[in-house]
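Q: Protein A?
A:
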Amino acid sequence: MSSSSIIDSMNPMYVYTAAFVDELQRAGLRNVVLCPGSRSTPLAMTLASQERIRVWMHVDERSAAFFALGMAKRLALPVALVCTSGTAAANFLPAVVEAHLTRVPLLIVTADRPHELRDNGAPQAIDQNRLYGTHAKWFVDMALPEASNEALRYVRTLADRAVALTQAVPAGPVHLNMPFREPLVPTPDRSLLPLSQRDPAAWEGRSENAPYVRVTEARGGAVYDSLVERLLALMSTHERGLIIAGSSDDPALPALLALLGQQSGYPILADPLSQVRSGQAEDGCVLSSYDAFLRIDSFVERAEPQLVLRFGAMPTSKPLLLYLKRYCACPQIVIDGNAGWEEPTQLASEMIHADSVSLCRSLLASLSATRGQNEEWTATWKRTEAITRQQLQTTIQDFAPLFEGRVFTELAEIVPDGTTLYLGNSMPVRDADTFFWPDGRSVRVMGNRGANGIDGVVSSALGASAASDGPTVLVIGDLSFYHDLNGLLAARLHGLDLTIVLINNDGGGIFSFLPQASYPEHFEQLFGTPTGLDFAPVVQMYGGTFQRISHWHDFRVAINTGLANGGLHVIEVPTERASNVQMHRQLWQVVGEALQARESNITKIKKSVGK
């Protein structure tokens, strides 16, 4: 049975497994040592149908593992080991230990029972999570099989990442644990996703047998030089490109990215934590309102990119993610200077591990001589940015209730050069994405966007203040503030300066934007979680000043006072969750109408010129 017939006619388990095995061979895997068993049936049958992979059958798992070890050591290439669930997997351990100590690239794939059959007496089920401990470079308990675009992107990305990691310095074993539910044989299923809704790259793989994600280690030498030449060639033939700037702590990178955008004509979609928004001239290619205008279908439909270069982590914006998913066939290249894997979208066509600063400098040194610019492409994005910002700014001024997003338009005008702006998670970081436009001023924007938790943010901001030469401002929601009230003691103990903007909507404001809000019966109890707390006495207990504002004039005065006087200042902005959602949606509507009107005018002008 061929891989294509599995995808066309079999059940979701086999579609998923076929994509995984297909991607293994695309990543360069050519040899698999397979041990017999029942739970591994989907893997065994799919591997047997893959013509580019040779299957070596071994009955004894311990011997099989050492056989694979010797083969991988001699070839200096990854070899895969596959077995069923239970103690079969445990018998691989001696060879895995040896591979770890001698840096041999082994990919161990163990079949497993689904989660509902673990730790409850089911036969042939042991705890296989991190079975090989520190002897495996990386472990993943994989998702259960399903036949969706998202699942197939996931499993292809995982296959490429795993094979690449077995060879990354230092080489060694990687362990993937694959759970399967019965039936384990390829029975037909008529509920597969219709052809019209499938992402071809996820279902069939990329063209010309290319890996779904190409992994490039380019720390220097000939590999680095070849990478630069290849990227320059791509940029020279793809005029409609974009640069996406995610969170970054490298002080040299933001200015280089801004230059790369200007020189290439590629608009830069800059996350607030990228530091690229700060200190840039207004006529540059750095865009900061894309979270608003990428919600507008009429713009997205005519803004198909040919190439996307992303530096750093994926930005916060969900509309940006949906935009990238819409154009998933576009080459999306992620440049990450770390050895990790900052790619949660499963959309990247290449992961480049190289020093971002050096790579930008190399591209800038040669870029001007190799390409022209698509002025209309660049102008469209810049014009859309300008219209969006104008509409947002104008409409916000007309809101009678205090609007949470206006906190950031006000701060963008108030805070001086050298300010550190610390962002709380949930709504503050998202509103900053759309409404913080620090034109021409250098503002360091920080946040805890690793685990994205709402705990410890006050203490983190105070720690940043202790290490900062300039003023520090924290914008935080009431639940996150409550989580870390004890952190305020550090301000008193160490004489720290921190101005806190406390957005108090009495609960979890972000849930009002999510589908949970459509189920009002238990919404407040489970998601809104109002506390009704008065924070003034607590702030005063820790030696700070507290002010609850009711007008934006008072907000500006309070911020300036806090920055001028130093110490701990908490400025509470009381808002209402339901009206905040309505104001956000009104803004998206206004932006959409303005962009549609602009497009209509351009169409009329073109028709008039044509006559």
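Q: Protein B?
A:
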Amino acid sequence: MSDKVNSGAGLRAGKKALQEVKDELGPFVVAADKTRMPILFTNAKSPDNDIVYTNQSFLDLAGYESSDAIGLPFHRLLAETDRVHATLEVIAGKHRGKIDLPCLRKDNTEFDASVLVSPVCDKNGKLQQYFICFIDLTQRVENRIEQRLREVEIFVHTPGFIAFSTGPNHRFTFANMAYEILVGRQNLVGRRVADVLPEIADQGFIEFLDEVYRTGERKVGKNIPIRLVRGPSGEAETRYIDYVYEPVRDASGAVVGLFCEGSDVTNIQAVSEKLNDIQSQLMHVGRTNAMGTMAATLAHELNQPLAAVANYASGCINILKQSGLHSEDLHKGLSAIAAASDRAGKIIRGLRDMTKRITPVNEVFDLSNALKESVHLVRVGGCKDVSISTQCEPSMFVSGNKIQVQQVIMNLLRNACDAAAQRDTAGEVVALTTQKNGSQCIVIRDNGLGLPENIKDNVFSWVESIKSDGMGIGLSICRTIAEGHGGAVTLDSTGPSGTSFTFSLPNIATDKYHAGIS
């Protein structure tokens, strides 16, 4: 019976206090009751700032009945972690007396609200109540979350790579699909960059991230190579990227993370290199045309003096015969002069025909004999005290323009002689014929010092010659002639112990040759 009496007394006291507040505030209460903004008053003289008035909008927001809310300590409206630090006195002292806080409904569900607190004083300036307004932020927060999700969705599917990291250890907080494809790894969030991509540490990228984080300076890179292990093989491949690294700052301006955005431009780089290669080839074509003009001019200008040399040599031979003198050495010398001048004319005419794209005259011939003739001509032309030995297999029949084939052989022999002559010890060149993979081959080796590192990878390209009297076109022409015959010229090896080239041509069956194909 006494509990009911006490409960009834408390309720009557609460109603009386509420009525006193309404009487004190007067017409303001009427306006507060009608407004849709949640409003309440607390008793500033009580330790817990008990609620002494609420309007219906607050009751609807927080899920209370008026009888439950009156007398409730204000801190019961706040989430547990904010009750100590977000007192009404603290909130009122902040700029404009407003703060965003997580609040609690009667059923303990949370909602976000912007809480505005104003002190209410009497005529003497003594604090009596706190006037408190609540602005429900739930919808605003949900809208922000939806907006962030839309932004993340855009980031995820954007064609450029995007990543966020936090802290000085650069721990991933976000990486989109393009970034995962670039690095060839997934599930990056929460892991450190150095742990996910250990191969970039030796390339200076971790130090680069450290510098951006330390200095807070934006960094931009264009067409930067980066080696990444992207496949199950474990082998690194080079990609080219454009990137921007931006420092991420907190409200105080301190750097707390990094934002990375960029594009994989490897394919663009490949296209650029291809264009450069095409331009180089066009330049090569221009030089070839120029060489064709030069060859035609030389052929025209030199054919007459070469013919004269051959005629004079033949005339001298006839004079020897008519005079009755029998000098075998002189007769051989004059015959060699006539043969050499005739061969020189054929070589020049063959070069002219090749550059003018005239179809050459083909024949079936023995490659071993062609090699022996070429060795003889190189020896006669001088080989700088270098010995040339041959190892020839019989019946190595091929089809093609013999003069052009011998041009290739002699060019390779002269290069080998020049290389072997550079040694302090005796220079040696070995030329042999053999069969490899169904092809008839000539292998030419020297014991020179090998090709320079900057030359060997592009030895068949038209580049500046390393010889003081060279044009840099010899091996390029050799390759063109070989490929025109369905064959190839390859560099087998080069180094301090010497260099080896192989000149290969398609095989011609000997039975066809003996059947009369020529």
